[in-house]
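Protocol step 4 of 5: obtain the predicted structure for the target chain.
Materials: sequence only (see below). No template structures provided, no constraints applied. The aim of this step is simply to have a reference model before the mutagenesis design in step 5. Sequence pasted as it appears in the construct record:
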Amino acid sequence: MALYGLLGFAAGLPFYMFSTVLALRLQAHQVPLAVIGFFAWVQLLPTLKFVWAPLLDRYVVPGFARFFGKRRGWIMLAQLGIISAMVAMAATASDASLPLTALFAVLLAFWTTTLEVAADAWRIELYPTQDEQGPIVAANLWGYRSAMVAAGSGALILADWGGWTIAYLAIAVAAFLPFPILSMMRPEAEGGGGRAAALVTGTAAAAGILLATAAATALIGSALLASASAIGIDAKANVTPWVLALCMAPFLAMAAALPKIRRAPADAPIRASAAIGPYVDFFWRYGFAALVLMAFVSLYRMGDVLALNLSKPMIKELGYSLTQIGRADSFVALVSSVVGVGLAGWLVTRWPMMWTLALGAMVAAVGNLGFVWLAHQRVDETMLYLATGADQFGNGFAGAVFVVYLSLLVNPRYPGAQYAFLTGFAFLLPRLLAGAGGTMVNAIGYDGFFLLSGVLSLAAIVFLPALARIRARDA
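Step 4 output (structure tokens):
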């Protein structure tokens, strides 16, 4: 329980640094709001984790794995990736080159996501039932939410005091805390070799993997930026129609493939494949009900994701300082989030899942609508505390319920890959739309934007009667 609280803390710290804190940092350097919105697309990396999640189920990290095991080996590699990317973001804190800022933000997002994939797979293997999942998810999310509060408040106060470089370096050190603890744990199995040898060889292998990943990311990023420029995507472009078209593509592809998947026997190549077999299994078990499930998971956290990237720039524009925002994101946000997560972790062990999902959607909507209320109040930290508390309580409650629900949908044969797929798809549509958030605010204003986010959170309730009747096909 304590370890999963710490792993949640280590994953939550960097997430805030490539999302909300980065948005405020770009705003401080006079980057246009539409471009700040584009940086929300860095958060697409967690939604695409199903692309490389099977690698974590199939392969081990050289050096680390022989002593610490497969799951811990990947977690330790991800920790090294996180601290190296965070140090690079600290070194380029002036944002003189936005492509360079984007590169290091993407690397930070990639390694943070890899840490989550490995930790989630380990969690599902260790705690497979609903009663067991509630407490361990609560512990993990307490750590995660505490970290987001620590990053949000601590980084902003440090940035106000000593600059963005100091803020990123301090958070980097805190995010690395699990590594020495994991390195001191007992071996995965007898005969795994010495601890010191595993650490030395594992760190050497990690250095090569980190450099190769950075080089590949730079090449892919350059190609994507060139393509975007060629089709006219810039700070003045209306990207919303493009985003909506992209959002429809996954649903159309799934609907077209389902008939063939449902007829596939157990030894069919698409079901036996190490690369796509775990994902085909999900659609084979749920059939056309999978489309309902995917639509629901795409919508459930929509409001919170839309609000995440632009809520702090809006608050800054209202006249609040970085230090005031940081204070609101400290004790108030921490207590609200911890209470929300804890209440959800307790309720899922006692209430039917559909009731807790409905309550989560409602409190999340209240949190988003609180920003509309805040925009029409005088500049007063008490008002900011009320809005922040409502947002963090709703976010924590809905997030905990959602994690338990998704964990129960996976096949225990493929815990890492299927959970990565579900959580990735759950945030694909919201984060695609979040990237267009800056252009949406330019068109409908902050009031319209946060009203929309609140209504979208409530819309998920419409799916609950259908979800209650869905049962997985027995393999």
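Step 4 remarks: The chain has a mean pLDDT of 85. Residues 299 and 459 are 8 Å apart (CA to CA).
Proceed to step 5.
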